[in-house]
C-alpha cells in the first residue's frame, strides 16, 4: 500500500463533504415529519374546514397524515430505481448537482402550502423530496467510494450514514415547539432544505468528477489521471489507474445479466442474497417507524416529554455511527453487522418477555 493512498487531502475532503450534504438532506427529510405531527394535522383540519365548512373526519385525517409520511418512501423508491439513468450519462458529480432542482421545487411547495391552504402541496413536496433522496442514496456512496483511496474507503464511506443520522438529529432538534415545530414556523421547518441544496450547488462545481467515471465510462484517461493527482496529492497515481483499468477489463469480460439471472446463477446468487439480507435486516429492524412515528409512540407509552425522548434516540443513533466511523476498518463490516443483529435480537426478546409478564 502506497503512503499517498492514506493521505486525506483538502480536495478529497471538499469532494466528500460536498457530496455528504445530500446525505444530510436525506436524514433531515426522514426525521422532520415526526415532531410537528400535531400542528400539521391541525393545518389539515383548518384547510378542510375552509374548503368544506366542517371538521375533517378522524379516519380521513389519519389517511392524509399516513400519506404525507409514506409518500416520501414512495418517491424514494422511484428515485433509487432511476440512479443508473443519471450517473452513467451525466456523471456522479453532475447528477448530484442537477438533482438539487428537485430540492428547491420541494422546498417551495412545502414552504407555501400553509399560505396556499393546500395539503396537496405539502404531500407533493414530500413526494418530490423523496425522489431526490432516493437518487441521493445512490449518488453519494458511489461518488464517495470512487474518489476515496482504497485505505480510506471504508471510513469515508461511513460519512454517508453519518450525514443521514446527523440530518435526522438536526430535524428532531429543529422540530421542537420552541424552535420551528410550532403552528407559525412549521412551513419553514419543512422548507429549510433549500439551504443545504444551495450549499451543495456552490460547493460541487469546485469538486472533481469521479475518476472512475472519466476512465471507464468516458475513456478520458488523461483527465482521470489529473483528477487522481489532485485527490491524492501526489504525482504518482499509477497504482490507482491500474486498479481501475483492471476493473474495466473485468466488466468488459462479464456479460450483462437480468434480475432473474442474479438469483438463478450460482456466481451471483450468494452476493445478491447477502445484499438483500443486509438491506432487510436494517429495514425490518423498525428503524424507519422510529424516525417517522417515535413521538407518537412515546406519547402513547406514557412518556411525559415524547419529543425529547425522540431527540434522545437520535443522539444515540448519531453517537454509534461516529463509533463505527473509527472502528469499521479495524473490526470489519461483517463483525459490526453481526454485533448489531445480536443487539436487535436481544432487544426483541426482552420486549417479548416483558409483554408476556404483563399479560
Low-confidence stretches: none
SSE succession: HHHHHHHHHHHHHHHHH
CATH superfamily label of the domain at 10-207: MFS general substrate transporter like domains
Helix content: over 70%
DSSP E strands, number:
0
Supply Rg: 22 Å
Average per-residue pLDDT, rounded, comes to 90
* Distance separating the two termini: 60 Å
Quick one: overall form?
globular
CATH class of the domain at 10-207: Mainly Alpha
Number of helices, where a helix is a run of at least 4 consecutive DSSP H or I residues: 17
Molecular structure report:
- By secondary structure, this protein is mainly α.
- It has a domain at 10-207: Growth Hormone, Chain: A (Up-down Bundle).
- The protein has helices at 10-31, 37-52, 58-81, 83-90, 92-111, 119-147, 153-174, 186-191, 194-203, 211-217, 221-232, 238-253, 259-264, 266-283, 287-300, 306-331, 333-358.
- InterPro entries: GLUT, MFS_dom, MFS_sugar_transport-like, MFS_trans_sf, Sugar/inositol_transpt, Sugar_transporter_CS.
- Keywords: Cell membrane, Membrane, Sugar transport, Transmembrane, Transmembrane helix, Transport.
Amino acid at each position: 500500500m502506497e503512503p499517498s493512498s492514506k493521505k486525506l487531502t483538502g480536495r478529497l475532503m471538499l469532494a466528500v463533504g460536498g457530496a455528504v450534504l445530500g446525505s444530510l438532506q436525506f436524514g433531515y427529510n426522514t426525521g422532520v415529519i415526526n415532531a410537528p405531527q400535531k400542528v400539521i394535522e391541525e393545518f389539515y383540519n383548518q384547510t378542510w374546514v375552509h374548503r368544506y365548512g366542517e371538521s375533517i373526519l378522524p379516519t380521513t385525517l389519519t389517511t392524509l397524515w399516513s400519506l404525507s409520511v409514506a409518500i416520501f418512501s414512495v418517491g424514494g423508491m422511484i428515485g433509487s430505481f432511476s440512479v443508473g439513468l443519471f450517473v452513467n450519462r451525466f456523471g456522479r458529480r453532475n447528477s448530484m448537482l442537477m438533482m438539487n432542482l428537485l430540492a428547491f421545487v420541494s422546498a417551495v411547495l412545502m414552504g407555501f402550502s400553509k399560505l396556499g391552504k393546500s395539503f396537496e402541496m405539502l404531500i407533493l413536496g414530500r413526494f418530490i423530496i423523496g425522489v431526490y433522496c432516493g437518487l441521493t442514496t445512490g449518488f453519494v456512496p458511489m461518488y464517495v467510494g470512487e474518489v476515496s483511496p482504497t485505505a480510506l474507503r471504508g471510513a469515508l464511506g461511513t460519512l454517508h450514514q453519518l450525514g443521514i443520522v446527523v440530518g435526522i438529529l438536526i430535524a428532531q432538534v429543529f422540530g421542537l415547539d420552541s424552535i420551528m415545530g410550532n403552528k407559525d414556523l412549521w412551513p419553514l421547518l419543512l422548507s429549510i432544505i433549500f439551504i443545504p441544496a444551495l450549499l451543495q450547488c456552490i460547493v460541487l462545481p469546485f469538486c472533481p468528477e469521479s475518476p472512475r467515471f472519466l476512465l471507464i465510462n468516458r475513456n478520458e484517461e488523461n483527465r482521470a489521471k489529473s483528477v487522481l493527482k489532485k485527490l491524492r496529492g501526489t504525482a504518482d497515481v499509477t497504482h490507482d489507474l491500474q486498479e481501475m483499468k483492471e476493473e474495466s477489463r473485468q466488466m468488459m469480460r462479464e456479460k450483462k445479466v437480468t434480475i432473474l439471472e442474479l438469483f438463478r446463477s450460482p456466481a451471483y446468487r450468494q452476493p445478491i442474497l447477502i445484499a438483500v439480507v443486509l438491506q432487510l435486516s436494517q429495514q425490518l429492524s423498525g428503524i424507519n417507524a422510529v424516525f417517522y412515528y417515535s413521538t407518537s409512540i412515546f406519547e402513547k407509552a406514557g412518556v411525559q416529554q415524547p419529543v425529547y425522548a425522540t431527540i434522545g434516540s437520535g443522539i444515540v443513533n448519531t453517537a454509534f455511527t461516529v463509533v463505527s466511523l473509527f472502528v469499521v476498518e479495524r473490526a470489519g463490516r461483517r463483525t459490526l453487522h453481526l454485533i448489531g443483529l445480536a443487539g436487535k435480537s436481544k432487544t426483541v426478546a426482552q420486549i417479548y418477555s416483558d409483554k408476556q409478564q404483563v399479560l
